[in-house]
Amino acid sequence: MLKNRVVKPEEFEEQLFHLKEKFQLLERRLSLKADEIVFTMAVSHRKEIDELKDEVFYLRDELKKVKKDQQEEYLKKAAFQAKRRSLV
Fold first, then answer.
1. How far apart are CA 70 and CA 76, in angstroms?
2. What gap in Å lies between CA 53 and CA 66, rounded to an integer?
3. Three-class SS state of 5
4. What is the share, in percent, of the chain residues with pLDDT greater than 70?
C-alpha cells in the first residue's frame, strides 16, 4: 500500500486542479439539469393553464346558453299568460 508515500507539491496541485475541473463539470451538468426541469415544469404548467382557460371559456358559453334559454322560456310563459288573459 501507499500509506507512507509522500506526495510532491506538483502532483498535489495537478490532482487538485483535476478535482476542481470535475467539480466545475458537475456543477454545470447540475445547473443544466435544473434548467431542463424548470423548463419542463413551465411548459407543463402552461399547458394546464391553457386547458383551464379553454374550460372556463366553454363554461362561460354554456352559461350564456342556459341564461338565454331561461329568458326565452320566461318570455314564452309571459306571452302565453298574456294571451290567456286577453282571451278571458
1. 10
2. 20
3. coil
4. 94
Query: Which residues, other chains included, contact 7 with Cβ-Cβ below 8 Å and sequence gap of 6+?
Result: 15
State pLDDT tens for residues 1-41.
556 788 899 999 999 999 999 999 999 999 999 999 999 99
- pTM here is 0.59
Provide the residue type at 11 as one letter: E
Compute the distance between CA of residue 40 and CA of residue 25 in angstroms, rounded to an integer. Answer: 22
Q: Give the amino acid at 8.
A: K
**7: DSSP letter:** P
Buried b (16+ CB within 10 A) or exposed e, 24-34: eeeeeeeeeee
Residue 51, H or E segment: helix 9-87
In whole angstroms, give the CA distance from residue 37 to residue 72. 52
